[in-house]
Amino acid sequence: MKMGRIVSIGECMGELSETGSPGMLSMGFAGDTLNTAYYLRHSLGQDWQVDYVSAVGTDGLSDRMVDFLNSEGIGTDHVRRLPDKTIGLYYITLKDGERSFTYWRNDSAAKRLASDPGALNRALEGADLAYWSGITLAILSNQDRLALIEALGQFAGKGGTVVFDPNLRPRLWDNPETMRGWVHRAAAVSDLCLPSFEDEATWFGDADPAATAKRYQAEGARRVIVKNGSEDVTFAGSSGELSRFSIPSVEHVVDTTAAGDSFNAGYLAAELNGASVENAVAAGARLAGRVIGARGALVPDAVTQA
């Protein structure tokens, strides 16, 4: 049986959402790379280790987050503790299944997750796969962005697999031009890119998913999988082949939070277990379909149902 270690790099935040009772909120923990780590941990056997690489504070809320990660079997040895910072928070609003967010993250420790290159290299040492996103890049300073890209480039050069979801969030960037430039630099060190066509068409002007795939490959990505909501998934392989795979429709959409994050996890888990691209896409779509049929980013029984 194949075994290995995955590191997911980014920001986990406190997630505030309405409980259904007026004025009452519940709090959980989520964030794009954490969501994928969560579903990878629940999709892969215990022969796989899934670690989270980030930074948090030393306050009670940070303690609760680390305890949550540990309780879910996600390793926290490489979550740095910064005494002068805390974690970010966001409030989620739903309308017809689509979500919008209000953020409080100015003092988030995760903005400094790459400020210690030595710690970053130690986190990557011995890993088989490193997963990160455009949001991971967006919250960092330019110096730390360079440090992270350099570390992942070295990791890839030693045989590690780098997987990148551009997850375009222009509000986190100074301007769209800066976002586009850094996202392309990230693609250059990534084996697999997992963009979403709607965002790519908006911010890069791509005419179709094939154009998105070809653009990322031109920047240096070896393989690209383009998600497109309920439409076909487009795959561009390392030999130049281009394939499209249909995915099943989801009849009852409750909350699209973590749709792409869970698809990525389902795809990667299947691929790591030896599935073909077609079967891995189907696995990703099944998992995402379960996740968007329930409220919240983390749906505990989505993996067993998928």
Short description:
This protein is of the alpha/beta class and 306 residues long. 38% of the residues lie in helices and 22% in strands. The chain is built from 11 helices and 13 strands.
Q: How would you describe this structure to a colleague?
A:
The protein is of the alpha/beta class and 306 residues long. It is built from 11 helices and 13 strands. The strands form 2 sheets. Strands 5-4-1-8-9-10-11-12-13 form a 9-stranded mixed sheet, sandwiched between helices. A 4-stranded mixed sheet has the order 3-2-6-7. β4, α2 (60-71) and β5 form a beta-alpha-beta unit. α9 runs antiparallel to α10. The mean pLDDT is 93.
- The count of strands amounts to 13
The global form is: globular
- Give the SSE string: EEEHEHEEEHEHHEHEHHEEEHHH
Integer average pLDDT: 93
Q: Order of strands side by side in the largest beta sheet?
A: 5-4-1-8-9-10-11-12-13
Query: Helical percent range?
Result: 25-40%
Largest sheet geometry: 9 strands, mixed
Helix-and-strand structural type: alpha/beta
User: What Rg is obtained from the alpha carbons, in whole angstroms?
Assistant: 18 Å
β-strand percent reads 15-25%
